[in-house]
Predict the 3D structure of the following.
Amino acid sequence: MKLLGYKPHRKIYYPAGLISLVLLPALCIWWLHQHKAFEPIRAMDIVFFDSVTNKTFPPAYRIPAKKKYLVLDLTGNDAEDSVSLKYAQLMLKRWKAAKDDTQGVDIHFGKKAKYWTLVEAVNKVKEIGLKTYMPYQDHFYAFWDFHKIDNGLKIKVLMCGTGLLYSQPSACQRYMTSLQVTLKDYWSPLLLFTIMCVSVFSKNRQIQFLRN
């Protein structure tokens, strides 16, 4: 069908559509970077210490456990703190060799102590296979426990954290959750992109109609 016998002799370009197709991907990427969409997101369960429940535990399982502790103060001096951590590991090795679980290490983090000392304290006890350690307030307790657990002993189980990080949702649930988060966070650029695509498609249909 011809419209009034008019047939264009040259190609008709739609500048707005061409500009949008060129700039829109760049603008979308810029917008996503501004909203930190490409940064990894991590989560960590946080729990509150229950002093009432702690008193119901046997002395060997309370926080802190009833031991004779070697107290080491970390002051923020890298050299001195490094020596203190090595000394703590050395003493734990000696107690392991002597099967001594009456003593333990109490690493106290002072106000100027640095975060790397906490990480290093965990690494030191893991290197020697120690599993009974616990950070509590500004202390880090570590000790051996060579006694067998009494099977008849009843201890209340305390759920640590929300437990959400340990749940295993199905693949469909993970996909739907990801889709909901994407639509919620990026609905505006998606809407703009959809409008631009519809506009360009509509304009091309009009051009094809004029040519025919």
About this structure: Residues 187-211 form the longest helix (25 residues). The radius of gyration is 32 Å. The CA atoms of residues 2 and 144 lie 92 Å apart.
